[in-house]
Design a protein that fits this description.
With about 350 residues, this protein is α/β, with parallel strands linked by helices. The protein has 2 domains: about 1-115, no CATH class; about 120-360, Metallo-dependent phosphatases (Purple Acid Phosphatase, chain A, domain 2, 4-Layer Sandwich), CATH 3.60.21.10. The chain is built from 8 helices and 12 strands. It has helices spanning about 1-25, 30-50, 60-85, 90-115, 155-165, 215-225, 285-290, 315, and strands at about 120-130, 140-145, 170-175, 200-205, 225-230, 235-240, 240-250, 275, 295, 325, 330-335, 350-360. Helix 1 packs antiparallel against helix 2 (about 30-50) and helix 3 packs antiparallel against helix 4 (about 90-115). The longest helix has 26 residues, at about 60-85. Residues about 50-60 have low confidence and may be disordered.
Length: about 350
């Protein structure tokens, strides 16, 4: 892994040196130009030094973000300059291209500020006529898409953990994607979540990122931290002779809701108000088939970069964005989640922690 990382940093360094040489070719014999090249090379090795565990996905956030933004800006400016030298109207190209680069930098700053500012605390009350009386007022803290790794380092995870600790609840539910890429990233969750002790514990399911490279290693690591991971199975919570039946689906390879049938072991049975937990809301039908009155999901990130009313990637890809959905007497709540994937930005889509209070009525 370290050799791969060194190669990536080396290739990235060559690319940036080319951009700098293009932008400042008239000054290539001046001392300050060579100092700039040396500074950029040292910066690359500093980012490498700040890594943990020899993995490219564990860069410290400040180093990673400045690396990405600065070099994306270099690349964009170099592209504009190349077009200006190749095409007619070079001044027009530089003015328009430069304006677009500044606009992109501004949006990136907005996206970073929103993604890594304080998470939104969402309060939701849901009423069901068949909710057992003993669970009237039961509070569920719902999180999803933490994506511990390159875009959610220890500082961010601690901030989210403190917010969750301030939101008292009976049960903590994690709707998948605890990590970004590697099972070792689960260790970053241990300390930030250590102070969370809801009355009925922590229950979760695996998301697609949790199962990219292994089938159950992430589940084993999380269970060592006090989580109960439901993989196509159920568990009961009892109070006063009444119970909630929690039913969790582990993220499958085939997400087609028309063909997918979870291999329940065993099939959920017995009395109780049924709550389904799943990563992708596309599998809501599978939970409704076994009687889930309320289903909890994540996966969509609320679109992450929300361009509604024009377009929202979540609506295009999954069919759901965020919030409450209803089919007959059954309900689905989709959280926007906490972390980021692909890009460390959120625009018009703040990370959120949801507390759902169940009511009988």
């Amino acid at each position: 892994m370290m050799a791969t990382t060194l190669l990536l940093v080396f290739l990235k360094g060559i690319l940036v040196q080319g951009w700098l040489a293009l932008l400042f070719r008239r000054h290539s014999k001046r001392a300050w130009f060579w100092a700039l090249l040396a500074l950029d090379a040292l910066w690359g090795f500093w980012v490498l030094y700040r890594m943990r565990g020899g993995s490219i996905v564990t860069w410290r956030q400040p180093a990673l973000f400045f690396w990405i933004l600065t070099h994306l800006t270099f690349g964009a400016v170099a592209t504009v300059e190349t077009l200006a030298r190749m095409l007619p109207w070079p001044r027009f190209i530089r003015v328009v291209g430069g304006s677009l680069v500044l606009l992109a930098v501004g949006f990136s700053a907005w996206g970073l500020a929103e993604a890594y500012g304080p998470p939104r605390r969402e309060e939701v009350q849901l009423s069901f006529p068949d909710l057992p009386q003993a669970f009237d007022g039961y509070r569920i803290l719902l999180i999803s898409d933490v994506h511990a790794g390159p875009y959610a380092g220890s500082r961010t995870l601690r901030q989210w953990g403190r917010t969750m600790a301030d939101m008292d609840a009976d049960l903590l539910v994690g709707a998948g994607d605890f990590i970004s890429y590697w099972p070792q990233e689960t260790e970053a969750l241990r300390e930030p979540f250590a102070a969370l002790h809801p009355r009925d514990g922590r229950v979760g399911v695996l998301g697609n990122h949790d199962r990219y490279r292994t089938s159950m290693e992430v589940a084993r690591r999380l269970e060592n931290q006090g989580w109960r991971i439901l993989t196509d199975e159920s568990m009961a919570i009892e109070r006063g002779g009444e119970r909630l039946l929690l039913m969790g689906i582990g993220h499958p390879e085939d997400e087609d809701p028309d063909s997918f049938k979870p291999p329940w072991h065993p099939v959920p049975s017995g009395p109780g108000f049924r709550i389904g937990i799943v990563h992708t809301p596309m599998l809501w039908p599978a939970l409704r088939q076994v009687g889930a009155r309320l289903s909890l999901a994540g996966h969509t990130h609320g679109g992450q970069i929300n361009l509604d009313p024009l377009v929202n990637v979540a609506r295009v890809n999954v069919g759901y964005v965020a919030g409450l959905y209803e089919k007959g007497p059954d309900r689905l709540f989709v959280t926007k989640g906490l972390g980021c994937t692909a890009l460390p930005f959120r625009i018009r889509c703040r990370p959120e922690i949801v507390r759902i209070t169940l009511r009988r009525g």
